[in-house]
Amino acid sequence: MQIYWTKINKIIEETPEVKTYLLDCPEDFTWEEGSHTHFALEGFNAGDKPNRSLIRHMSISTLPHENSIGITTRIRERCSEFKTILRNLEVGDEVAIFKTHSNVPLKREDKNVYLLSSGVGLATFRPLVLDYFQRADNVNQIHSLNIDSSKEFLFTNIFEFESAPDKKFTSRFVDNRKDYYKEVKLLAADKDGLFYVVGSDEFLVQNINALREQGIKPEQIMLDKHEQELPEFLSFN
Asked: Of 4, 102, 109, 168, which one is least surrounded by beta carbons within 10 A?
């Protein structure tokens, strides 16, 4: 396993609780849209065993052409040891990344794509949308639906409602579950669509139930989970 140590080159305050840490790209480090990585803080591998409290599984919110590895995360006032240390890091500080993989690349199957997310889960979808803007081949259209009760919606420069109708991309933000699941039900009227879901495990289960109730098949639902984890979420009647 290769561990890449790299430096923070910029910290962006997306909202009062959400920051994006932009990291220098190691020379031979590559990734694709929908990728996640293990993001670790200094000291995580100092002992005989890795200190798992200093490691988090994070989505990469940028594409390679942006020349920085973006890690977008919510840091609340009361937070874990990991987030407390992260909050105090500055430009120039070192972090580690390793085991990078994409479970949710953009499928190009001449279908409509629906991106369903909660809060900072939208960070996973930012690269998919940018990739689609660069090359729309074999994707009919994309619609993003995000729920965030904080009302501090992310990446509105990209995800603002009907931000690119000429590119067949639309986006909607809601701040409550009732409106969100009402919208999911409407989207599921497309019985041939592809539905990407990112959020907590509870959020995934609720969305899968809502989609399955409308007749959406498991193979139409994309989750940011390793292949061996998918049956736990998708294999039920």
From this structure: 109
